[in-house]
C-alpha cells in the first residue's frame, strides 16, 4: 500500500478584492481565512489549483 504525498497549504493573503473564481479555488482547497492551513493530497488537480492562486499561498511538504 503506497502512501500519497501530502502538501501543507497556507493562505497568506486575504480574499478581499479577489476574483470570484480565485475565491472559489481557495474554498475548493478547504481554506477559510487568512493564515488557515490545510493538508491536501499531492495530485495534478490540487497542483493546478495551487498554481492558479499561488500568489496567495505558501506551500510546503507535509511530514508523514
3D architecture notes:
With 64 residues, this protein is of the alpha+beta class. The protein has a single domain (6-61), classed as Ribosomal Protein L30, Chain: A (2-Layer Sandwich), CATH 3.30.1390. Helix content is 28%, strand content 25%. The protein contains two helices and three strands. It has helices spanning 20-28, 44-52; strands at residues 6-11, 37-41, 57-61. The chain is globular and about 40 Å long. It starts with 5 loop residues before the first strand and ends with a strand. The mean pLDDT is 93.
Task: Give me a quick take on this structure.
It is built from 2 helices and 3 strands, in the order βαβαβ.
Give keywords:
single chain, 64 residues, alpha+beta, Ribosomal Protein L30, Chain: A, 3-stranded antiparallel beta sheet, 3 strands, globular
Write the layout of secondary structure elements.
Elements (H helix, E strand, L loop, with lengths): L5 E6 L8 H9 L8 E5 L2 H9 L4 E5 L3
